[in-house]
Specification:
Blueprint: H1 4-14, H2 18-40, H3 47-68, E1 84-87, E2 90-93, H4 98-106, E3 114-115, H5 133-150, H6 161-168, H7 180-188, H8 200-211, E4 220-223, E5 228-230, H9 231-237, E6 249-256, H10 267-275, E7 279-286, E8 289-297, E9 300-304, E10 310-311, E11 334-337, E12 344-351, H11 354-368, E13 377-379
Parallel strand pairs: 3-10, 4-6, 5-13
Antiparallel strand pairs: 1-2, 1-8, 6-12, 7-8, 7-12, 8-9, 9-11
Helix pairs in contact: 1-2, 2-3, 5-6, 5-8, 7-8
């Protein structure tokens, strides 16, 4: 958390007016005090006002962090030489492999805060600064999935029509398939107002919903719920109804690695996930900040940081057949110490073939979901109490369907804040 001393130093060394810094400090304090007051009130609280206060609080904090980033290096680490760094199934030894490592990092699409884009429908938001970092992270994860889907893990940044089309879908355009506007609106169906923070699970669910409108992509997005993965159900949804062919799969697994901090027993299994060839990274972060994790070095996680505010590219003012893309790539990465990691995180895996999925399941069962450090549960077959999968949710259930599930509470079947995946925010 940025302190008054940090702000004073920012003011004197970075030309930030002291009056603005102190006003920001006072505002944050009053906002927090008023939020505590709201939480203690009896009766219905003003959720809209709380959401506004939270957004303003986050915006102020991120503004101060931007000013102080040059001299407050707490929590940031540099890559170490003479050590291996893992990046989604690939290993690089520094400094010998520095160029290869940087080319790999630079080939990821990097989405950060943008300003002056078209307002998100029904709101006045023309920037996602202060609240959209998790949305930018899920954009990075999904865009890398599409690059892997259309090319391979070995693809390196260069212009081509397919790459340009992928980037086009993520521009800050209300008509873009995976734009900040579309993801924010998709989150509304999960109870997240535009301008409020998303957790990893809601971000994943938003991408899953949007992928349903892109059927010609031939990509199946599945989000594991309640820390339980049923292989039979994943295969069901990843097999075409007509031909029985495998549909390439993006599997997202939201996890909770502790209550207020990550349990150390999960560190090695999480690192192992980044070593798997199917890994496409993870979205998570630390309180008040979301990151896109792409690997690790030692006991620290490697990430791309969305907390840089850039000017939005207006689709009306650029050549959409050759998008100027330099601001969508970076060689800058940071390391997050394990002890600073927020316990809410979502892992991503891409399986282009059934064999790849079977190999992933084998690796997960052997190293990731076994023993005391198991990250989540896996089962080959669906338990009898679970609802049978259906490609048509509104269709009539078969006559021999067991009604056991009817007696269970299904209010939490669609997750919002109750699972703890949404608390990468105020602390």
């Amino acid at each position: 958390m940025v302190t008054a001393r940090d702000i004073y130093k920012a003011a004197t060394e970075n030309a930030l007016p002291i009056s603005i810094g102190l006003l920001a400090c006072d505002t944050v304090y009053l906002l927090r005090k008023y939020q505590v007051h709201l939480s203690k009130m009896n009766g219905e609280s003003n959720t809209s006002l709380e959401a506004t206060l939270t957004t303003l609080n986050n915006t102020i904090n991120n503004t101060i962090n931007d000013y102080t980033s040059g001299f407050t290096e707490e929590g940031k680490s540099s890559l170490q030489e003479n050590e291996i760094v893992q990046v989604l199934g690939k290993s690089y030894f520094l400094p010998e492999d520095k160029d290869l490592f940087e080319e790999d990092v630079e080939s990821f699409l990097w989405f950060s805060y943008r300003r002056n884009f078209r307002a998100i429908g029904g709101t006045q938001f023309t920037s996602d600064r202060g609240w959209g970092c998790m949305l930018r992270c899920i954009q990075m994860l999904y865009s890398h999935t599409l690059i892997r889907h259309n090319f391979s893990r070995d693809w390196r940044w260069k212009y081509c029509p397919v790459y340009n089309a992928i980037l086009r879908d993520f521009l800050d355009d209300p008509n873009g398939l995976y734009s900040i506007q579309q993801i924010a609106k998709a989150g509304c169906s999960a109870g997240k107002d535009v301008g409020t923070w998303f957790g990893p699970n809601t971000a994943a669910q938003s991408i899953r919903v949007l992928s349903e409108f892109h059927k010609d992509l031939n990509l199946n997005v599945q989000v594991v719920m309640d820390n339980f993965m049923c292989i039979e159900d994943i295969v069901f949804f990843s097999t075409s109804e007509e031909e029985g062919d495998w549909i390439p799969l993006l599997l997202i697994i939201p996890l909770r690695l502790g209550l207020s901090e990550c349990n150390n027993i999960y560190m090695e299994p999480i690192k192992m996930c980044f070593e798997l060839p199917q890994s496409i990274g993870a979205v998570g972060g630390r309180p008040n900040s979301a990151f896109y994790f792409i690997g690790y070095q030692g006991d620290k996680l490697l990430y791309l940081d969305p907390h840089v505010t850039q000017e939005s590219l207006s689709p009306d003012s650029i050549n959409l057949d050759n998008i100027p893309d330099k601001t969508y790539h970076t060689r800058k990465v940071d390391l997050l110490p394990w002890e600073q990691l927020d316990p809410s995180i979502a892992l991503g895996f891409y399986c282009q073939t059934r064999d790849s999925f079977d190999e992933l399941c084998g690796e997960l069962q052997e190293d990731i979901t076994s023993g005391a450090s198991s990250l989540f549960e896996m089962a080959e077959k669906r338990p009898s109490y679970m609802t049978p999968p259906s490609r048509h949710p509104n269709e009539k259930r078969p006559e021999n369907y067991s009604a056991e599930y009817e007696d269970l509470n299904t209010e939490d079947a669609v997750d919002t804040d109750s699972d703890g995946f949404e608390i990468i925010s105020n602390s």
